Q: What sequence folds into this?
């Protein structure tokens, strides 16, 4: 069974837990405990493969600019970065988080895009919108990631689709990483053999 590790990141109150609980239970509860880091587990099957999904939902800290990221950024295979479309600050924070992911995983990103989905949540509050959808698209384009606006309060299908898409991307990414590892391993073995036997042949 494959393990897939996702981290949900974003400002306090952006709706990270609501988005996750919607995906896991199909329900919107309204209020979620936010005083502790939580790790959720789910088994699911995608493309006939059984997966063990782990999703890390960190407890937000009060200082927006503070980095709570170090651990999840190293740990996760993929990210969901959530902002609230009716809160400009949460969008700026999402921008900041995307930059921090790039900083931490830049070397990997040069070879293949890290699976990330930027999510503009609370689409049902569009009367109070502070972030245009185009700004979300532009930011996602800049960071080479997926983008979607959703409403955890009103949608299940869109949220379910975005998780499925992201998990597929993670599966491709993990396969690519394993192939790369195998390839560089076999290349260094070939080099070693060449060094040993190549030199020996010369001295005969
Ligand atoms: N109108 C509306 N409210 C939402 C939506 N998603 C979440 N909320 C509300 O926004 C508030 C914060 O949601 P949470 O899911 O706790 O946000 P969070 O990002 O996990 O917050 P922390 O755990 O404090 O970091 C709650 O009162 C939710 O009911 C949405 O799509 N629409």
A:
């Amino acid at each position: 069974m494959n393990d897939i590790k996702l981290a949900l990141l974003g400002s306090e109150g952006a709706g990270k837990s609501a988005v996750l609980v919607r995906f896991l239970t199909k329900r919107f509860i309204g209020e979620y405990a936010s005083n502790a880091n939580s790790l959720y587990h789910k088994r699911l099957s995608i493309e006939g493969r059984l997966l063990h999904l782990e999703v890390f939902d960190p407890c937000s800290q009060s200082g927006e600019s503070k980095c709570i990221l170090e651990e999840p950024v190293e740990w996760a295979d993929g990210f969901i970065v959530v902002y609230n479309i009716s809160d400009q600050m949460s969008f700026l924070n999402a921008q900041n988080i995307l930059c921090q992911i790039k900083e931490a995983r830049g070397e990997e990103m040069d070879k293949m895009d890290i699976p990330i989905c930027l999510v503009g949540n609370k689409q049902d509050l569009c009367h109070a919108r502070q972030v245009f959808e185009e700004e979300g698209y532009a930011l996602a384009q800049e960071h080479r990631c997926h983008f979607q606006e959703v409403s955890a309060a009103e949608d299940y299908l869109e949220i379910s689709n975005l998780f499925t898409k992201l998990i597929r991307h993670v599966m491709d990414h993990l396969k690519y990483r394993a192939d790369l590892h195998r390839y560089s391993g076999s290349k260094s073995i070939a080099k070693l053999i060449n060094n040993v036997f190549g030199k020996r042949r010369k001295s005969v």
